[in-house]
Amino acid sequence: MSLVVVGSVAYDGVITPHGSVDRMLGGACTYISLAASYFTPVKIVGVVGTDFAEEDHQLLTDRNIDTDGLERADGLTFFWRGEYYENMNQRKTLQTDLNVFEHFNPKLPESYKDQPYLLLGNIQPALQKGVRAQMKGPKLTGGDTMNLWIDIARDELLATIAEWDVLVINDEEAYMLSGEKSIRKSAEKIIEMGPKTLIIKRGGDGAMLFRKDHYFVAPAYPLASLCDPTGAGDCFAGGFFGYLAGIGLDPAKDFDATELNRAVIYGSVMGSFCCERFGVERFRSLSRAEIDARYEEFRKITSF
Amino acid sequence: MSLVVVGSVAYDGVITPHGSVDRMLGGACTYISLAASYFTPVKIVGVVGTDFAEEDHQLLTDRNIDTDGLERADGLTFFWRGEYYENMNQRKTLQTDLNVFEHFNPKLPESYKDQPYLLLGNIQPALQKGVRAQMKGPKLTGGDTMNLWIDIARDELLATIAEWDVLVINDEEAYMLSGEKSIRKSAEKIIEMGPKTLIIKRGGDGAMLFRKDHYFVAPAYPLASLCDPTGAGDCFAGGFFGYLAGIGLDPAKDFDATELNRAVIYGSVMGSFCCERFGVERFRSLSRAEIDARYEEFRKITSF
After folding, report:
1. Which of B188, B194, B137, B197 is nearest to B163 (CA)?
2. Which of A86, A125, A251, B239 is deepest in the core (most CB within 10 A)?
3. Residue B120 near residue B146 (C-beta atoms within 8 A)
4. Rounded Cα–Cα distance for residues A113 and B55 (Å)
5. pLDDT tens digits for B198-218?
6. Is B102 helix (H, G, I), strand (E, B) or coil?
7. Which candidate in B205, B275, B299, B304 is best for mutational testing of the A interface (most A CBs within 10 A)?
8. Which of B58, B52, B44 is nearest to B106 (CA)?
9. pTM greater than the 0.90 cutoff
10. Which ipTM did the prediction report?
11. Whole-angstrom distance, CA of residue A244 vs CA of residue A259
12. How many CB pairs under 8 A join A and B?
């Protein structure tokens, strides 16, 4: 049983204080699916252009990611370019060419529709809602969004996340969505909007999980050196959902708080590996054994 | 056996996004000693002016803090006024009147000199060194410093912290002292400077403990609402050292990593309570039972 992942597949250019790359594979769908693929079978839905390189397609299939839902359209692949500030917790966008992504209208292959797990990367909320409607009632639906949709498509976004089990956003988005200034108050308000579980990503400061009667706080894994944070939040989501799909979590039964907490840690672990190299480079060599070793290290450095 | 605490006793004025107070009891020595007093007997060394209010003195003695080393000098008590920015993680100083603190030359009462635990709040490094020299070889010496001394008294500071078991600083100070940009690399360099244990405080983002062969990462306790962060870092140090003194930690024997980790959590707990009210207000009602309950909650929200 697979995790269906929907989102952008892109080429990125990044400038960091440590170096820059003009063009590399990126996009939320790419990062999420690579990270999740260590835990569960993954099927992706996205769109690329005629410039999409065979070796990049190969990277996905090498990780057993089902690309039947990856549409190839006339035109160029979505391109994004950004620059990180000194502290690497913030960045500015220098260029966004939507290209074939502008008219992305995700259509699920038949083989995807009865899968139990669905993770909706950040795309227009109405499209996210439409994807879920194509599924035959997934057991667990989760997704991400961004400040743009909170700002210009708030009603659509609210209607969309009302159907989700898990919403994954960052702290700035949580403040914006809730109108509150403290994380705990934001979480209370957002859980009232529908998602039973809220994950708040805080970049280099860790992540938090909130439910009505449970919450969990994880620090970030302290990397010796941070190369490129692009995709780390998506890898977090991929690790989190991948782990839950891998253990076959069934939210129709009672949620298991301990397994949710562990999923946060696996998410953090995947985000930390992502930052060690530019783009998706780290996933070319990363092994499940390395992931489990860092998970155990996480336990060791946080237990008291 | 007591913890000797040296540092500023002050009156503070603060402006926060939630309100302001013109004048309230403050100073590193005050916050440290109040926080530590829940775990161990405390003896303080500091200086106040003739304006120091009896009720403020009373607050300290009510918590069984020995004030024999609190000198009363002619003149006014140290006064500091600052304003917090919206996110409360940063502030600007509006006014600093050193007053009697300008010529503070700490002299330890005889009854202090054979105590086993010494915590040096942020004062001029040479004064910190002089205080330690007055002690008859404390079992455990720790201290704090600030960007000013790293900048203008680096050599004195290095000679001072070389004798310490524990250095407690914030992340900006760690970067400044080490010349590194990552926390782990900073920690490696600073441990080479002498302190066997380094604590890096990160405000609302938690704290980390580093030793040569051990490290520990704690998130901050997620407060529902943050009133005033003034003194939180000092309360962290007070909780950390107070706990270690309370259990009679003897660093001449092997350090106990688990107890050090627990001390970080007690430090975080004390810092979190401090932020709940302006200044030292929270310590007027805080009980050890509340502290232990939050410590247990910390375990619950970080275990996986």
Report:
1. B194
2. B239
3. no
4. 71
5. 999 999 899 999 999 999 999
6. helix
7. B304
8. B44
9. yes
10. 0.90
11. 8
12. 74
